[in-house]
Prior knowledge:
Shape: rod-shaped
Largest sheet: 3 strands, antiparallel
Radius of gyration: 28 Å
Strand content: 5-15%
Number of strands: 3
Structural class: mainly alpha
Helix content: 40-55%
Number of helices: 4
Oligomer: single chain
Strand order of the largest sheet: 1-3-2
Amino acid sequence: MKSMMRRTTLREIWQSLGRYLAIFAIVAMGVGFFAGLKITRPVMVESANAYLGEKQLYDYRLLSTLGFEEEDVAALAAKDDVRAAVLHGDDMVFLPPRAAGGGSGSDAPQDAASREARLSGTGAFCLESFKVSA
């Protein structure tokens, strides 16, 4: 009985080979598209984290309605779990300690905006904050 069913199935496929191949191609494209969508988010998060780590962008941005004083920055920078604390206008940016074996050794944030502001000599720039999570 099984061999008869197999022969009938193969005969049906052979008689409508074009339709069978078209359906097979559509299913294959759907599977490929779905696999691409499933891997996109983890890859984008990993790429963004690698970029942010390479550029040493800050991890936390503190905002205050009253503003911060130099003493506030010094107090935060003195903590063991803070790598750098920088005062930008009324905002304070600080970085936790770097993981072992990474980075250039500088304690200041090294992002494109701050490098450009230092090169232009104006000293006025703004750092954006955003969080990438897995």
